[in-house]
Design brief:
Elements: H1 13-28, H2 33-39, H3 41-60, H4 63-87, E1 95-99, E2 102-106, H5 111-120, E3 124-127, H6 129-137, H7 140-148
Parallel strand pairs: 2-3
Antiparallel strand pairs: 1-2
Helix pairs in contact: 1-4, 2-3, 3-4
Length: about 170
């Protein structure tokens, strides 16, 4: 798509959005905005405000507005990634589990997939929280156990061994 807003200069919106997405990747592959808010609420608010300006420019701005706000968005992503790295904040963009040779990562930010595979190897199954919910919803025995004992955890399954106390 080229040209936006009243001044309609030649602008490749797909390229602009790709540039901002690539600038966000170092942050989004490791952290969530919740972690940034805990570290530095003011920096968090400035980034969120900049996101709003960027989105408004994409919808109603001129080509110059889009260029200006996308460049500011790229600087914002770089600043928050630098702040998180400097503070030594651990990754929180995903949860990792391991059972019986299967490694599963759960997260919402697609940029985190590459980070997980970089740190933990390629055979990692990536799932969103909604996919996990759909999976669990299909496991009637698991749902029943969690309803009866909400704090219980399934640590290891022994399907061929009787449970303690079983005949």
């Amino acid at each position: 798509m080229t040209g936006v807003g009243p001044l309609s200069g030649a602008l490749d919106l797909a390229a602009v959005m790709r540039r901002v997405s690539e600038a966000a990747a170092p942050f989004e592959s490791r952290w969530t905005l919740r972690a940034l808010q805990r570290l530095d609420p003011e920096l968090h608010d400035r980034l969120v405000d900049q996101q709003q300006l960027y989105h408004e420019a994409l919808v109603t701005g001129t080509a110059e507005d889009v260029e200006e706000q996308s460049a500011a968005m790229c600087r914002g992503w770089a600043a928050v990634a630098r702040a998180m790295e400097t503070a030594g904040i651990p990754d929180d963009a995903y949860l990792l589990g391991f059972h019986g040779g299967v490694r599963v990562a759960i997260g919402e930010q697609k940029h985190a997939i590459a980070r997980v595979r970089e740190l933990h190897g390629v055979p990692v199954i990536w799932m969103t929280p909604d996919e996990v919910a759909a999976l669990v919803a299909g496991l009637e025995a698991f749902k029943g156990a969690k309803c009866l004992w909400p704090d219980a955890e399934i640590i290891r399954l022994y399907p061929k061994e009787p449970a303690t106390g079983d005949p």
